[in-house]
Design a protein that fits this description.
Shape: globular
Number of strands: 6
Number of helices: 9
CATH architecture of the largest domain: Alpha Horseshoe
Radius of gyration: 20 Å
CATH class of the largest domain: Mainly Alpha
Length: about 300
């Protein structure tokens, strides 16, 4: 279903995501109730839309405060209201952080692609600035690169829309810069967000490319605790974008099991490494929580109809 502003302003359904992952739904024609998954919550709203015989609006609120303005069809398809996506803000500069040398994780970060032929005029606005980000990264100025990329990401999302193709390509550069600045978990989350948004747009090739980038970063992480934390996002992403014949999802699940085994054993077990080129994680104490807020999670919209046919 295409994004539309033709859907009447009433009714609006509220979907509130709690920290434990449960979703509370409320609004006209439905009882206030909690649900284990977002797909089930969407199905409830779609049922109300079916009774009305048309699509309805919904407001989804994440635990961190991000708000999504959605349109839900009677068939259970979901789209964003144009211009109604989440707002992103550039992270504050971390004080006292030591310069980060180019590590194995940074070396694994894929390079971002430039503007594509036929890209809209708005894309040209960001091409020069994105080139500056790359120049900063090549020169080792990762802090400057990260700050500039975050500003461009926020600007592109605000001007073009958070799921616009060119905004997603800007976010890929942001993901690369974030990882190379030392926040590999943040890089994984940004790539995951890009992958899921391409998936929702129906572009399987772009979705798989971004998903592979997120998974590559994750599998090269050398800290067990951080890898397990980032793995939650990767597994969620791979459940939606499982790869050919589900091979990517199977590999991600295998890697997570290996991480759990490594953590429980209390020592590296490189011989059990599922990925040939992935270094063995090192079991070290968890570092203090980062001061800068991590990227907001994206609202999981079902890629297929959630309502069962007939």
């Amino acid at each position: 279903m295409r994004e539309s502003t033709d859907v009447p302003a009433w009714p609006v359904y509220d979907l509130t995501v709690h920290n434990d992952g449960r979703i509370l739904t409320s609004g006209p024609l439905i009882p206030t109730s909690g649900h284990a998954t977002r797909a089930v919550a969407i199905e409830v709203v779609a049922g109300a839309a079916a009774r009305l015989g048309r699509a309805v609006r919904a407001t989804a609120t994440e635990p961190g405060g991000a708000v999504w303005q959605l349109v839900v069809s009677p068939e259970g398809k979901v789209s964003e209201v144009p211009g109604g996506g989440t707002r992103t803000t550039a992270p504050k500069k971390r004080k006292g952080r030591r310069p980060v040398r180019r590590s194995a994780e940074a070396a694994a970060v894929p390079a971002a692609s430039g503007p594509r032929p036929g890209a809209p005029k708005g894309a040209e606005t960001y091409a020069e600035s994105l080139a500056q980000v790359v120049d900063h990264l090549d020169a080792g100025r990762t802090d400057q690169a990260g700050e500039l990329a975050a500003r461009l990401d926020a600007q592109a999302a605000g001007v073009l829309g958070i799921s616009h193709p060119e905004a997603l390509r800007v976010r890929e550069v942001h993901a690369r810069a974030t990882a190379m600045a030392g926040d590999v978990v943040g890089g994984v989350q940004l790539y995951r967000d890009v992958a899921e948004r391409w998936h929702y747009r129906g572009d399987a090739e772009q979705a798989e490319t971004a998903a592979s980038h997120a998974e590559m970063l994750w599998m090269r992480m050398t800290h067990v605790g951080q890898a397990l934390s980032a793995g939650v996002d990767v597994i969620r992403m791979r459940n939606q974008i499982p790869g050919r014949s589900g091979e990517a999802l199977a590999a991600a699940l295998e890697h997570r099991e290996w991480l759990l085994t490594t953590r429980d054993a209390g020592e590296p077990t490189a011989r059990e490494r599922p990925a040939r080129d992935a270094p063995a994680p090192q079991v070290v104490p968890d570092p203090p929580a980062p001061r800068a807020p991590r990227p907001p999670p994206s609202w999981e919209r079902p890629a297929v109809d959630t309502r069962k046919a007939g």
